[in-house]
Amino acid sequence: MKLTDAQTGKLITYIIETTGLKAFQVEHTVELLQEGATVPFIARYRKEHTGELDEVQIRTVEEQFAYFCELEERKITVLKSIEDQGKMTLELRERIESSRQKTEVEDLYLPYKPKRRTKATIARERGLEPLADIISAQELTTGDPEDVALPFVAPEKEVPDAAAALEGSGHILAERLADNAVDRAMVRRLTNEQGIMTARVAADYKEQVTKFEMYYDFQESLKAVPSHRLLAMRRGEKEEVLYLSITAPVEQIQAGLKSRLILRESIFRSQLERVAEDGYKRLIAPSIEVELRMESKERADEAAILVFTRNLRELLLAPPAGGKRVLGIDPGFRTGSKLAAVDETGRFLEHVTVYPHIGEARIPQARQDLLRLIEAHGAEMVAIGNGTAGREMEIFVKETLAGAGRQLPVVSVSEAGASIYSASDIAREEFPELDLTVRGAISIARRLQDPLGELVKVDPKSIGVGQYQHDVNQPLLKKSLDSVVESCVNYVGVDLNTASWALLSYVSGVGPSLAKAITRYRDETGPFLSRKALLKVPRFGAKAFEQAAGFLRIRSGKHPLDNSAVHPERYGLVETMAADLGVSLAQLVSDSALIARIDLKRYVSENVGLPTLTDIVEELKKPGRDPRSQFQTASFRDDIRGIGDLKEGMILQGVVTNVTAFGAFVDIGVHQDGLVHISHLANRYVKDPNDAVKAGQIVKVKVLSADMQRKRIALSIKEALI
Prior knowledge:
Layout: H1 5-19, H2 23-34, H3 39-45, H4 47-50, H5 55-84, H6 90-98, H7 102-109, H8 119-125, H9 129-137, H10 145-149, H11 162-179, H12 181-194, E1 196-201, E2 217-221, H13 227-238, E3 242-247, H14 250-261, H15 269-316, E4 326-330, E5 337-342, E6 348-354, H16 363-377, E7 381-385, H17 390-403, E8 410-413, H18 418-422, H19 425-430, H20 436-449, H21 451-455, H22 474-492, E9 494-495, H23 501-504, H24 511-525, H25 542-548, E10 552-553, H26 571-581, H27 585-588, H28 592-596, H29 610-621, E11 651-660, E12 663-667, E13 674-677, E14 698-707, E15 712-716, H30 717-721
Parallel strand pairs: 4-7, 7-8, 9-10, 13-15
Antiparallel strand pairs: 1-2, 1-3, 4-5, 5-6, 11-12, 11-14, 12-13, 14-15
């Protein structure tokens, strides 16, 4: 939608009032977004324009602007429809134009919205609208309602008597009531505030044990139902195990409708009371329940997606092992374990399949192949997928290394989504000649080297850190997850000469098409020697360069700043700083003593303020630094390999794999994650589990219980601290 200046101004006013941000912050942010700037670019390189808004605030402005644009489009459609019907009034136009919620616009449009054939429609066709008007006026205080209805009796129109006339006029009045925006708002408010979400078990499942058993007879305040419970109940409903409904404060609502409908004492009081009851029960209640169920679902979706995005961010920003030669292992029993060696850049070197878990006879050869691969390719670490046979392979590798007098770090790596990657187009492009399982072993090795660089190749939904991810709004989930990946990639920065096209596609201003063009150009002409060389890539124009260049790194490039987050548009400024100090640019970079002598205030200008200058100085101190934490690994006990080995009271080390609204799941090396309930996350009250732990964090836990039959493990971080 192309907005006029007046519409843009109105939307900006809405956003200012909604977000509480300053006018210039919203105005400049909207202007930059409309110019095609990305959120990471605005947050990093346009701090003076936005008053140092962070990515979350900028995305909020972006979302609000999109919402109000959609709202304006809907208003235009509604206004035109009402005008075409010749029913527009000045008051109605003002109410629609001033609305700030889609539900308010729809409520105002409802009386004019084309309807299917209803009881009220039929009553109008039978000539009963004038009778409805008489009843609505409530001016008659004496007499019999049926006498008033007699003139409207028309057997030829299927109105055989006065009672039928009164009934038909009641249908018209009930529809008017249901279409009244003020009345609907009142019903919506009371139902939302006092409504009870109710779950009941379907008759066929009354005597059965299912995963929805706790909801067989369940009630909770609609406003208080947590996201995970609502999504669980909705899944139960989808699987036809549960019936869900919203119980509203019916008496209070009907009393409110009657008081609004009955203006004064009249002979029609009893009929109007029935109209209020019928209008609510037959017309308003069902539609409001649908609306509120949808709204509660949207809130639950947003909460679940927030949990997912937080977990994904922590996983993507997990500390990398770095440029080390790694032997990756995709473990298996009957089909064998696939071993794949990669060099320090992740380049595939060799693979072999070993069978150490299907009989003693195969073990010697497996040990020989393992040690040969390590020796031949100088492996510095071993990465083992944590799926089937993962713990068994970990023990085998450690025993083999110990027997050979070798000491190498052996790390358990999450293989969630590895099989998805192995069968993907990206994997086929990278390794067209290799088997799926070998691709998986390569991916496991690379995940240890750089989790971010490898995980961007996998659909985030397959990484296993979500909460009911298949039940939530899929377009919203994809948009949110893509935003997280984009944010993480640009936060860390990307090596232009080694990154896959999948990783490059998330760089600000690039996208899949340009990413593939970059890698094709790199393959054809060799490594990029400077950021400026990007402009030689077909279709890589000045705008893409502006958005992307600062997030791309060239190690040992021609220009000293090409391996930093300093944007090329500020190279001249940094060169001036070096000249003012009487040194070369190369001398200035990484020399803390020289950098300390820079007087930032001297370089403040109309376009460059202290926020940008401060960022530049920080980059000069440590150009190309990786902002992620130091790499660490968890140590699983060798004698704990399955649930049966667990004993109540054991203190173990584990890795947080998933943080949900009700607690956190921890991998302790037994093929089944244990749950740390929110009440056991810390020795203090925790409202949000993310305040206590993060996905990927190494923690100590105490075993509270281990249920072999249900495969459930209860853990406590709080108890482990005592």
